[in-house]
Hints:
Layout: E1 3-7, E2 13-17, H1 24-30, E3 50-53, H2 55-61, H3 66-72, E4 82-84, E5 97-100
Parallel strand pairs: 1-5
Antiparallel strand pairs: 1-2, 3-4, 3-5
Amino acid sequence: MPKITFIEHDGTVHTVDAENGSTVMESAMRGGVESIVAECGGGCTCATCLVHVDETWFEKVGPPSSEEEAMLDSAFELKPTSRLSCQIKVTEALDGLIVHTPSYQGR
């Protein structure tokens, strides 16, 4: 089972077990990562599950789709490695993934 580490804006670290085929957002919700709001429940319609993928992992995670890019345009605290966690599918290749959460999710 892959592990994902979430580093919140205040430095709090959560390492959670993630199921293959689930999303990074779903893993955060199951793991009690409170800085992932996910108002739309993973429908790629709200941008409240924004994460900044650690630079060492960004190539492996890959770039956002055009639909996701459109939603990122409405997000706060964007960085070049920003992704919506609801759009990142968990695979064994992402075991050890590190993502950072912003201080604000548009709540």
